[in-house]
Amino acid sequence: MLDWLKFFPYANQTTRSHTEVRGPYFPNPKPRRWKLGDSLLRFKAPRSNPIFGFSSNGRSINRLSPGPRNILKAEWEPVYGGNSDAPPSEWLFHHFYSDEWLFVGPWFSGFQARLTGTGLLVTPDTRIKSSFSDKNLFHPKVFESAIANYLDHRYGYYRNGRKPRYRGPLNWRVLPISKSIQAVICDIHQIGNSSIDNPLLLRLVFFPVTPQTFIYITFSFGGTEIYNNKVCAEPMFKLCDSIINSFHLDVGAKTQAEWDKVKATCPDMSITDSFGELAWPLKKEKKSKNPKEVDITPASDPIVIEYDKSSSR
């Protein structure tokens, strides 16, 4: 009866270790739409709201929405994914969406957890010789390879000493978001300096929208220890999964035609329902101590040797 007041997003203290945590304040899902070329992604997510309070007790939210714009044609902020130990990425990333949902403790005890959603538009980098430049992402094996390539580059080169900083992909599953195009959902565990028994979580969603473009969505559990803090983790899992399971792609005629072209040569368009954990950490490429010699001879006209055909035998 008094839940609206008990979990009102106002903080006059910062107290942790509660037996109950809730969020966001407006739990009813709101319809969202993303225009992707001639296709339309529909999903439902609740409104996000700040936590009010004095000094450092309050929490603001950062949001970016594509609105009615065509995500494939609008200009978005480029972002970089990877680290200095990784080779140059074969992909370009553009940030078009972000949202946050805050969770609070009872009776104005303040911020407890944060679920963050981020959407990126991903295309092969045409400035380099990408192995995916001439590949079609609607082909299931190409798409699976693209996901593995991205995960290796983004997470595989991080390490703590000789141990990896991340594990993945874990909990791989396929989500049919339309009658033709399927999405892949998987988890990345950040194990850091601790162990596999105490990870932080990233839940990832991938799906292709053109032969050369896919959408990549990240849900971050904001530093919540998913095994050791079930009070916060359980409502965050519930919200995250409800958003993902509401994804539905209305595939446009042109996009469907591109998918049908692949199906004509690949009758089995299903994505694998299991994917093994990648062998991380990957080794940093070492610079050669003996670099290749460079030809510095000035360019000149080629020498043409004419043979006396009459002397040939």
Write the layout of secondary structure elements.
Layout: H1 3-6, E1 10-11, E2 29-36, E3 39-46, E4 52-53, E5 77-79, E6 91-104, E7 111-124, H2 140-155, E8 159-160, E9 163-164, E10 166-175, E11 183-190, E12 200-210, E13 213-220, H3 230-245, E14 248-250, H4 253-265
Parallel strand pairs: 1-4
Antiparallel strand pairs: 2-3, 3-14, 5-6, 6-7, 7-13, 8-9, 10-11, 11-12, 12-13
Specify Rg, calculated over alpha carbons. Answer: 25 Å
* Helical amount: 10-25%
Give the overall silhouette: globular
**Low-pLDDT windows of residues:** 291-313
Taken as a percent bin, the fraction of beta residues is 25-35%
Give the beta-strand count: 14
Order of H and E elements? HEEEEEEEHEEEEEEHEH
Terminal Cα separation, in Å?
107 Å
The class by helix and strand makeup works out as alpha+beta
Mean pLDDT: 88
Count of helical segments?
Answer: 4
